[in-house]
Specification:
Blueprint: H1 4-16, E1 24-29, H2 40-47, E2 52-58, E3 61-66, E4 71-75, E5 80-86, E6 95-101, E7 105-111, E8 117-121, H3 125-128, H4 142-150, H5 156-161, H6 171-181, H7 194-213, E9 227-228, E10 231-232, E11 257-261, E12 264-268, H8 277-280
Antiparallel strand pairs: 1-6, 2-3, 3-4, 4-8, 5-7, 6-7, 9-10, 11-12
Helix pairs in contact: 1-7, 4-7, 6-7
This protein binds a DNA duplex through residues 1-3, 33, 60, 75-79, 94, 111-115, 117, 152-155, 158, 161, 163, 170-171, 220, 222-224, 262-265.
DNA sequence: AATACAGCCTGGACGC
DNA sequence: TGCGTCCAGGCTGTAT
């Protein structure tokens, strides 16, 4: 599932494919819910003729700046991806929105499970302002992170998945960061000691950086798998814990467990990520 | 404030 | 081989 490294890789690949400066000559919406809340016809009419001026990432959103003060926010959710194809290519059954560019290329939003969203708006900040800090923001210091954790009573994993607390983490990199920091996903956020919080922030950045270097994580071979630039991500070999329930912990050899936290499958080593009674309880004050 | 759960979706894994 | 069933999960909305 696309998280920060996969979104950033998708953006880098589009930038390398020189889509900036291209005009959208025409647009076809094949699955209207992909462009909610606009109606398909309104989306097509409003975006046709606009020029792609900038592209960057914020959290898990791809932010396409267009002229006339319009912004296209794209959330890939589970299976969204972009493909550039020559004009006249045969239609892919999972393409949901197709942009005809002015250089005889097609920018196709491909989304098997149809959860992804393309939001065309003049006020992207209404959405982006709800996001928490970027994990790599140099202004996000270890001490701030510790203090923010101390104020919260939720389970640490639920908090890391909360995009308004920190933006860009999803299930895979969350499990990997918690394992690398030796922190049980059910730990109460407020129970983390200062050195644990500091280490967790370091490990979050490490696992994301590894993911970025490897162009993201692709799991399995099927239709729903993550691709960018038509290629698989190479990060699955760098995973230590995610998707490895029943296998041995690479650090201590214990059997990796899978539990559910905040409704998500969560992988952990019961020895490297111990939880104590006080860690699982809400601390007073 | 935190949690749980349904809903949105389909391909793939699994059992028989 | 071919069904049926369940699972995966980011996010939103609703209920507790």
């Amino acid at each position: 599932m696309p998280e920060l490294p996969e979104i950033q890789t998708s953006i880098n690949d589009l930038l390398n494919s020189r889509i900036i400066g291209r005009r959208i000559n025409d647009c076809r919406v094949l699955w209207p819910r992909s462009v909610r809340p606009l109606k398909a016809g309104d989306f097509q009419a409003r975006i046709s003729g606009l020029v792609l001026q900038q592209l960057h990432r914020r959290g898990k959103y791809m932010v396409f700046r267009l002229n006339r003060d319009q912004t296209l926010l794209v959330h890939l959710r589970m299976t969204g991806q972009f493909h550039l194809r020559p004009a006249g290519s045969p239609e892919d059954p999972h393409d949901r929105v197709i942009f005809e560019l002015d250089d005889r290329r097609r920018l196709c939003f491909h989304d098997t499970r149809k959860f992804g969203r393309l939001i065309l708006t003049a006020d992207p900040e209404d959405i982006l302002n709800r996001l928490g800090p970027e994990p790599f923001d140099p202004a996000l210091g270890a001490e701030d992170f510790f203090r923010a954790l101390r104020r919260r009573r939720s389970r640490i994993k639920a908090l890391l998945l909360d995009q308004s607390f920190i933006a860009g983490l999803g299930n895979i990199y969350c499990d990997e960061a918690l394992f690398a920091a030796g922190i049980h996903p059910l730990r109460n956020a407020a129970s983390l000691r200062e050195e644990e919080a500091q280490l967790l922030l370091v490990k979050i950045r490490e696992v994301l950086n590894t993911g970025l270097r490897n162009r993201g994580t692709s799991l399995g071979l099927g239709e729903t798998n993550y691709l960018s630039g038509g290629r698989r991500g190479e990060n699955s070999g760098a995973l230590h814990i995610y998707g490895k329930a029943g296998q041995r912990c690479p650090r201590c050899g214990s059997v990796i467990e899978k539990i559910y936290v905040a409704g998500r499958g969560s992988h952990l080593c019961p020895r490297c990520q111990e939880i104590t009674l006080e860690g699982s309880l809400t601390s007073p004050g």
